[in-house]
Please model this.
Amino acid sequence: MKLLFALAAVLVISGCQTVPYQGNARDVKRKPGVGGTIAVPLNPRQEDRDRANEHMISNCGNGNFKVTEEGEVVTGETTQANTRNDYRANSQQQTGTFLGMPVYAGDPGGTDSSTTATRTQLKEWQLTYECAPASPMPPSAAPAPMPRKKKK
Model:
C-alpha cells in the first residue's frame, strides 16, 4: 500500500513540471552575409534576445554583427465590432375602427441597434542589424612576402 501511495505521489509531482520557455524570434528580412531584421515579442525576455542573437550569428558569423536600430514597430491592425440591440416596448393602443378594422396610435415598439468598433494596433519589437566586415589580419599574422629571384 505504501508503494502504491509513493508511486501516485511521484506521478502527481512529475505532472506538475513545465517545459522551460525557449524564446521566440523570427527573421523579417534577411540578406545573407549583409544584415537583416529580426522580430521578437513586445517586452522581450532574455530567451527571446538569445534566440535573436542565434539568428544574427547564423547569418553573419560568430559575433560579427552590429545592431543598428531597435524598437517597437506596428505590423498591422485588428478591429473588433460590438452591436447592441435595445428592444422598445409596444405602446400602441387601439383608438377606434375604420371600415371594421382596428386603428392603432402610439409607438409600435421595435429594435434600436448601435454598433461600436475598436481598432487595435498589432505591434512587435524589431532589431535591425548589419554584418560587420571580417577584421583584417594583424601585420604580425600576415604571411611573409616571397623572395624575388635575381635577374642575371
